[in-house]
Amino acid sequence: MLGKNVTIIGGSGGMGKVFARYFKKHGFNVILYARNEDILRREAKELKVKYLTNLEESVKDADIVMVSIPIRTTPDMIKEVAPYLKDNAILFDISSIKSSVFKVLDEARKQYPINCLSLHPMFGPGIVNMRNYVIIVIKVGGTREYANLIKELLQIFKSDGLILTETDPILHDKQVALTLGVPHMLNIIFLNLLKNTNFSLGELTKYTGTTFLLQKVFAESIIQREMEMFGEIQIENHEFLYILDLLENLIQEYKTIIYNKDFNEFEKIFTQGLEYSKEDSHFQNSYKYFYEFMKILKK
To answer: What is the dihedral of CA 255, 257, 258, 264, to 10 degrees?
Structure first.
């Protein structure tokens, strides 16, 4: 049976606080751990949960330990914390890149009698209601109790309407390079492209159409978030280099079409995108969604 003690490493960060509230709402006893005691104390007081600044003390009685720290430091933290965990404890991370993390979790569960899991919530700290949001699940393994304990934990997420998508670490990193890395990259490039024209956004907005306005809002919402996280998602994911090669070839192709005023090739590349989009379940209503967003912006 799943125990009720949860420790969140990196508990003073955005996602750490999201899951602290979440587990507390579900009746768990939550302890936060982080290295900055001043911030940790403040956040624990706000959340009305306990905090500890000694790593071993914070996890030794935990039934569930969640690691919510930058991607580059997650594998080392897993190695550091695993020896302190009690038998049958669940250890999971929520990092955005899984290949290196999976290897370390797999080594930990072979070395210690613990249960390891890797999750990737596909939402950010601003979330209010988790219903219909996705959590990617990568099962690693553990003790004889693994199946029952992990099932109980995942059932809690399901009970709130979260959509659980199970995959493996290699496929995860390939798909997340597309679903996270590419949108982040395109919006960062979009803003820098506009900047390099020497027009201010305020001036451009005077001439805005609906498409530009919506794209601008998307880009501005992204650029306000954590630079380190966005950088890691692209720089630390080896699969993203392949995406960049595809993009470079596609831009060169597009440039040639425009330079040669080749409407036949333009129609071809436009139609390819159209036909690909038709496979998507949102395609039929996408224009309606677009104008629903515009109504909100115009208010």
So the answer is: -160
Q: With 0.90 as the threshold, say if the pTM is over it.
A: no
**For residue 164, what are the β-bridge partners?**
135
Cβ atoms of residues 65 and 81 within 8 Å: yes
Q: In what order do the strands lie in the sheet with 5-9?
A: 50-52, 29-33, 5-9, 64-67, 90-93, 115-121, 134-141, 163-166
Residue 8 · residue 31 · CB < 8 Å = yes
- Each residue's pLDDT tens digit, 238-293: 999 999 999 999 999 999 999 999 999 999 999 999 999 999 998 998 988 888 88
Residue 29 sits at φ, ψ, to 5 deg, of -90, 115
Rounded CA gap, 230 and 232, in Å? 5
- 132: three-class secondary structure by DSSP: coil
Single-letter amino acid, residue 150? I
Of the candidates 169, 175, 213, 178, the one whose C-alpha atom is nearest the C-alpha of residue 194 is 213
d(CA 57, CA 68): 18
